[in-house]
Design goal:
11 strands, DNA-binding, two-stranded antiparallel ribbon, D-Maltodextrin-Binding Protein, domain 2, WH-like_DNA-bd_sf, 3 domains, Arc Repressor Mutant, subunit A, transcription, alpha/beta, 12 helices, LysR family transcriptional regulator, single chain
């Protein structure tokens, strides 16, 4: 008996076989494939001739797979599924040749976290544009995501129930003291902290809000001598001896060597996470950017942290 030649097998024959196996009759398979019944019959006949085996037993009750027919049908389904995967991959690649990703976050994220991610992303997907909106308060990041003005947000965790989120990093709040400060232990007392004029970001800033909440929890006054918007300006003022500041470590970096770094009386931190809107229909570019964040910074996409 001549050996079967796989190059002579046709996808139309495999589709006909799978359709008959699922519907049970040649006529129903023809309807499913939008072909004539004779075309389906011819496809099966030529397939059986090429393979040299009987795939279907025909009868009044319909078409029933023979044992070898059942085995070959399973393989045919696997082939057709692989073809679907090929088409999906091609479609995904086309979607990553252009488009955009809209990012929202606060200053320290834009300065210290995003550049390395964007560098990697641009290497892999040069045709996709990336836009970044910087916000002074993390709540504005959440609002922009809800309103569809950004695709991916960097915010504080825990996040609301409408978001998918994963933890990116934990950022400790520290105290920066001027170079001429008296020697102190690594951890300040409240009295030592408030012996300096405190420099802080203006009302409405996300970090100031977190610091005010922290001080109120400890029944400490929320009195600041200076309101300064830029983190780098605050660090420079501390360096010039104008006062001290409470600041997230990531926002303070790079910290000048002559500035004294101390711990708060009761340490606390902010948890920075990546958030997306749970029910949003995201384009491939957004998923690619999320994968790039994970590759550069780590994290566990899909693990929600609800408030």
């Amino acid at each position: 008996m001549a050996q079967s030649n796989p190059n002579r097998l046709k996808l139309s024959q495999l589709r006909a076989l799978v359709a008959i196996a699922k519907t049970g009759t040649f006529s129903d398979a023809a309807l499913q494939l939008d072909l004539s019944q004779s075309a389906v019959s011819h496809a099966i006949a030529t397939l059986e001739t090429e393979l040299g085996v009987i795939l279907l037993n025909r009868g009044r009750q319909g078409a029933v797979l023979t044992p070898v027919g059942a085995t070959i049908t399973a393989e045919a389904e696997a082939v057709l599924n692989r073809l679907d995967t090929i088409c999906q991959q091609a479609q995904l690649a086309k979607g990553l040749q252009s488009g955009q990703v809209r990012i929202g976050g606060f200053r320290s994220v834009a300065t210290h976290i995003l550049p390395a991610v964007i560098e990697r992303f641009r290497q892999q997907y040069p045709g996709i544009s990336v836009t970044i909106d910087e916000f002074s308060h993390y709540r504005r990041v959440d609002e922009s995501l809800r309103e569809g003005r950004i695709d991916i947000g960097f915010s504080y965790l825990p996040a609301g129930k409408e978001f998918d989120a994963w933890e990116l990093l934990r950022d400790e709040y520290i105290v920066l003291l001027p170079p001429a400060a008296k020697p102190v232990n690594a951890q300040l007392t409240w009295e030592q902290l408030f012996s300096y004029p405190l420099i802080q970001t203006p009302p409405g800033d996300g970090c100031r809000y977190k610091i005010e909440q922290y001080l109120m929890r400890h029944q400490q006054p929320c009195k600041f001598a200076y309101d300064v918007r830029e983190d780098s300006t605050i660090v420079s003022m501390v360096q010039k001896g104008l006062g001290a500041t409470i600041m997230a470590k990531l926002a303070a970096e790079p910290i000048p060597d002559d500035i004294i770094v101390a711990q708060l009386p009761d340490p606390f931190e902010r948890v920075i996470g990546v958030i997306t809107l749970t029910d949003a229909l995201q384009p491939p570019s957004v998923f690619a950017f999320l994968d790039t964040i994970k590759a550069v910074w780590g994290g566990k996409p899909g693990e929600s942290q609800a408030a």
